[in-house]
Amino acid sequence: MIEKIGQLENKSKLYSLEHKFYPTIMVDIDSCLVGYRRGYGIEGIDILALMQGQKVEKAVIEITNNAMGGDKPFDEALSERLNIIKPKEKQLAKVEKIYLDNIVPNALKTFNILKNMGVDISLLSGGFINMMEKLAEHLGILLDQVYANELLFDKNGDFVDFDRENLLSKEGGKKLQIEKLLEEKKIASPIAIVGDGTSEVKTAPTTDLRIGFGGFAQRKKVEEKADVFLTDPTFAPLILLLLDPTQIRQIIYEQPENKEILQKAFDSIRNARFNNRAKNLKRSIDELYNEFAHFNY
Fold first, then answer.
1. For site-directed labelling of 71, which of 20, 61, 95, 224 has its Cα 20 to 30 A away?
2. Whole-angstrom Cα distance, residue 4 to residue 113?
3. Does some domain include residue 84?
4. For residue 230, what are the CA distances in angstroms to 196, 238, 274?
5. Rounded to whole angstroms, how far apart are CA atoms 209 and 203?
6. Is pLDDT of 286 > 50?
7. 288 part of a folded domain
8. Is the confidence at residue 7, as pLDDT, over 70?
9. Structural domain of residue 18, as residue ranges?
10. How many structural domains are present in the chain?
11. Is residue 91 over pLDDT 90?
12. Which one is catalytic: 30, 46, 196, 232?
């Protein structure tokens, strides 16, 4: 069977330079890894705002939308929102539970396949690590591979500040954090990143593949600038985007237990939008789908 896979791979050599293996994927959390349904993402900071009342919620959501759409610097937006909200430490557990109850479909299965193929998965968020421990544990991701901001409270659980030295609290923080991890040799290139906001596409050229996620919230600037823009609320297409043709063929021909999620990946990727830079990647995936369909006919 391995010999057959090698022979079939010759058909896609033209695209193999672009359809390649990514040993590192950085995954955004709010409105990407977690969300309610299409059109209804989850932003942890907005939930904290809702707990303070509708007036606070409305003011904070407006700032969040401006920040995620790229119309307001992230560091400015973060400070402004937290000064309005002033969250209580005891409120964080509720947000953590909402995260756990609303993980994007197929995330755990997709992560397990990617990890088995050698992909290193890290969570990279402008949200707060105080609310992410159980989410990471559920997904099999070590807490030291979760990079996020941190809220600071006094002994009574009242909000004091956020860690202003954290790179993710700054404008362009995700790019800064990835560069630091590369310098420390904690992650390997080439790097892919997926998220719903402009902060992911702004990580160029440090990242090699920038995937916009519109499964919950669709933002025009992200759709325009991402290499690939996913429109469905599922993580299954990441299998096709992060693994190379040989690895995908291995799943097709040797892992019948993964046939269902691979079908979901191919079905969903048909709705994705590829920019000019990713046209050859799309062509390679289309070829793989033809093989998959023929094999399972």
1. 95
2. 22
3. no
4. 9, 9, 9
5. 10
6. yes
7. yes
8. no
9. 2-39+102-295
10. 1
11. yes
12. 30
